[in-house]
TraR/DksA C4-type zinc finger protein (Halomonas koreensis), 106 residues
Amino acid sequence: MSDRKADLEALRDELKARLERYRAHRERAAGALDKDIEDQSLETRDDEVVASLEAEAEEELGRVRHALARIREGRGEYCERCGEVIDAGRLAAVPHATLCRDCCDG
Ligand SMILES: [Zn+2]
């Protein structure tokens, strides 16, 4: 048995911490509206980057939580689509995988 669950829990906590930082950034940006126009346009570009990073982290967190739920159900090592065992190398490389390599490509 691997420590995949522990890895996923660590990843989940890291993603949650990252999302907290993005939210803090957004609140800071919202409080910085009295800057001059040039600064504001820089802030806006920066905010767009943060917003897309935030969306990515949200999505990854969703996948991690989903994989953890599958592990709790005792189905963590099985492909969600075809029911085959997901190979250990893939799970080591992609701890949040819930599809086998074949199904993932399809
Ligand atoms: Zn499959």
In short: The two ends are 28 Å apart (CA to CA). Helices lie at 4-30, 37-72, 88-93, 101-105. The pocket of zinc ion is lined by residues 79, 81-82, 84, 99-100, 102-103 (CB under 6 Å).
